[in-house]
UniProtKB/TrEMBL annotation:
Domain called PH: residue spans: 7-116
Protein's organism: Zizania palustris
Superkingdom, taxonomy of origin: Eukaryota
InterPro entries reported in the protein's UniProt record: EDR2-like, PH_domain
Pfam annotation, one family: PH
High-level lineage: Eukaryota, Viridiplantae, Streptophyta, Embryophyta, Tracheophyta
Protein name: PH domain-containing protein
Length: 123
């Protein structure tokens, strides 16, 4: 299994959603890239493969799940939140959000498709 076999399945701007220790939520616009075995996000859209290292990556395998966290309010904006995590290592997770439900559902569907392909042994 080589990393060169990885290809981009889906990519686009989404929002990184999280909570600070004092309970306030934060959002950061980030560029997400879903590959055949990897979900990563960057501050800016990567111009080419080796342009920049991602801020964070999550290896996608058969233990990954996409959890629908529903609608959250952030400073008057409705966000539709998804959490992608590894059920064996719950600290390995990426929480992402979209301003519209359609975009969030497309991401959920694409990530689940990648997990499904890993589970059923497709390269």
């Amino acid at each position: 299994m080589s990393s060169s076999s990885s290809s981009v399945v889906y990519e686009g701007w989404m929002v990184r959603y999280g909570r600070r220790k004092i309970g306030r939520s934060f959002i950061h616009t980030r560029y997400f890239v879903l590959e055949t075995r990897l979900l990563s996000y960057y501050k800016r859209k990567p111009q080419h493969k080796m342009a920049k290292l991602p801020i964070k990556s999550l290896h996608i395998d058969g233990n990954c799940r996409v959890e629908d966290r529903g609608l959250k309010m952030h400073h008057g904006h409705m966000l539709y939140v998804l959490c992608v995590y590894n059920k064996r290592e719950k600290h390995q997770r990426i929480t992402m959000a979209a301003f519209n439900i359609q975009e969030a559902l497309i991401w959920k569907e694409k990530i689940e498709m990648v997990i499904d392909e890993v589970l059923h042994g497709k390269p």
